[in-house]
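User: Earlier you gave me the apo prediction for this protein. Now I'd like the version with molybdenum atom bound, so I can compare the two side by side. Same sequence as before, with the ligand SMILES added.
Assistant: Got it. Here's the input I'm using:
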Amino acid sequence: MKRRSFIKKATLSSLTVLVGTEIVFGEMIPSGYTPLALQDPDPFKLFQKNKEMILLNDRPWNLEAQAHLLDEKITSNEFMFIRNNGKVPENIDVKNWTVTIDGESVKQSKTYTLEELKSKFKHHTYQLTIECGGNGRAEFDPPAKGNQWTVGAVSCATWTGVRLKDILDDVGIKSNAVYIGYHAADAHLSGDAKKEPISRGVPMAKAMQEETLLAFQMNGKDIPLVHGYPVRLVSGGWPASTSGKWIQRISVRNKEHDGEKMTGSSYRVPCEPVAPGEKVKDEDMCIIESMPVKSLITYPKSGAVIDSGKKLSIRGHAWAGELEVTKMEYSIDYGSTWQAAKIEAPANRLAWQHFSASVSFPKKGYYEVWARATDAQGTSQPMLLPGWNPKGYLNNACHRIAVKVS
Ligand SMILES: Nc1nc2c(c(=O)[nH]1)N[C@H]1C(S)=C(S)[C@@H](COP(=O)(O)O)O[C@H]1N2
Ligand SMILES: [Mo]
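And here is the structure of the complex with molybdenum atom:
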């Protein structure tokens, strides 16, 4: 008699955990067969994201929040955008995970286990704003290729880890050090093991800042896998692409780091403004450093309806790269006049700040509420689009919501 081989009990129970309910007739599943529920992963379940998050791409996974989903003061995993350039690493072996510091500008390269990093260096916790350089890309015209982020590729979570500075001091850095570059465990989409999906970095001054962390916790827990477990670089206020996830190696370079997506036009904008659609030579493109001033109205959700004669409480967050936001305003007449909103001090440097206002409307009808932040150097957000650039980076136009007074 020919016999089918069925899955083992242990396999069945782990499948049950993954599916989240009893697999009826599970013992009849042929060995080697994956239930449909797991063949086509649901990214919301897979990454524990809220159902209202917007899926932009499934290869690689890219999801963004909607403005109203970012209402929390500190972004929780459920609402944190995902930006991947390659494949999320699988089967992470934390016990054997190491981080190596090497490169032309270290006196001698050094490798730390995760346990060593955690026990040898002092822990620090900061709220850090990380925004994708391409957040807002969807609005540019002519359009730019890439994920069509609207407003939701930004987060401000609490990150705990050790200062990169403390590690670099422990290793010993030569005086000719210029830049650091990260190398991570995610695989290139092509499957070519020699290719890295992304390997970016920051100049030494940013690497040595107090708030630049090699973090192992997000919001007080292990970092979720998709956000860089077990260890990620967090470089607040700079394009989020500098905050490398799944860090295995950091090279201290004697020149500007030239890893994947550091060169050409990646994460660069024209050094001088250009006309929309203009071709720009690579040598005329400059690396994006501190992100520009920006804000987001997170309450109410656009489309709110209120009763005539009532005031509307609005709130949200504002941030300005390395700078503090010093002024927050709103307009209900398409930017003709502006009223002051209340802006709170940041929890720490590089954390986003919370604003609020109580808005009154003169009569019934359709309105838009626009929000505008100004940074410590006096630079404000543009009302509509900022300078066009070939890759569609740095759109910090005023956010607006629709309100109906009836
Ligand atoms: N190793 C690795 N780090 C990475 C990336 C990546 O694809 N691989 N993407 C970068 C980019 S472009 C962004 S915007 C942020 C997104 O961080 P998040 O997915 O945790 O929100 O991670 C950065 N770090
Ligand atoms: Mo990004």
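For your comparison, keep in mind: The mean pLDDT is 95.
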